[in-house]
Write a structure and sequence with these properties.
This protein has eight helices and eleven strands. By secondary structure, it is an alpha/beta fold. It has a single domain, classed as Purple Acid Phosphatase, chain A, domain 2 (4-Layer Sandwich), CATH 3.60.21.10. A hairpin with a 5-residue loop joins β6 and β7.
Length: 225
């Protein structure tokens, strides 16, 4: 993903949380993101790995992964994750992992109605989210009607309209496509494009299995689920 973004000339990295949680190299990911001077908000798995979230909320596989991750972060990496904010505004956009509505409760936005409700907590014209690992776009038209579209592709940002965009997931896609998903926001062109980048999912799966993490966390990578 970073190589693809660099090839496009992307000049700033934004991460919407969950740097850690399922993968076999959590420390490497934290260090790589930190080294890029990225703008980062906290995800629920980041909080879980540093003791800021109740693990009872997680399913058994995610709980095991959080405990495993916590044991492998060094002090600096844990401090980095502990200091991440839940919500940020940057260049006219709201950045949040789960939802601008009650972000500390980590709600999922999966339907038209859930997106409509979330718009009431956003003051900027644009809001980027993750959490569900499924790309989607909610568009609040100037006439007051909200249009909902699942999937990636391009979204041309129109003046007078507001947008809630789920950028998908680099590490754990769950829309049936195993390729990594991320978004490029072109401010000059007023365009957001969700891109897919193939990577060696089989090797990621092998590393997850070799680390002793729940096997399903690796197996699901091959089907993007």
């Amino acid at each position: 993903m970073l190589a693809d973004a660099d090839g496009l000339g992307v000049d700033r990295l934004v991460c919407l949380g969950d740097l850690v949680g399922y993968g076999a190299d959590p420390g490497v990911v934290v260090d790589r993101v930190a080294s890029r001077n990225a703008i980062v908000v906290a995800g629920n798995h980041d909080h879980a790995s540093v003791g800021l979230a109740d693990l009872e909320w997680f399913n058994p596989h995610a709980r095991r992964a959080a405990e495993w991750t916590a044991d492998r972060l060094d002090r600096g990496q844990a401090r980095f994750l502990s200091g991440l904010p839940l919500v940020l505004e940057h260049t006219g956009a709201t950045l949040v992992h789960a939802s601008p509505l009650n972000p500390a409760e980590w709600p999922y936005l999966l339907s038209l109605a859930e997106g409509v409700e979330a718009f009431g907590s956003v003051e900027t014209p644009l809001c980027f989210i993750g959490h569900s690992h499924v790309p989607a776009v909610w568009t609040f038209r100037s006439a007051g009607r909200v249009v909902f579209r699942r999937g990636g592709g391009q979204t041309l940002l129109q003046a007078g309209e507001r947008y809630l965009i789920n950028v998908g997931s680099v590490g754990q896609p769950r829309d049936g496509d195993p390729d990594a998903a991320y978004a490029v926001w072109d401010l000059e062109a007023s365009l957001v494009e969700v891109r897919r980048v193939p990577y060696d999912a089989a090797e990621a799966r092998r590393r997850i299995h070799a680390a002793g993490l729940p096997r399903i966390l690796g197996d699901r990578l091959l089907g993007g689920r």
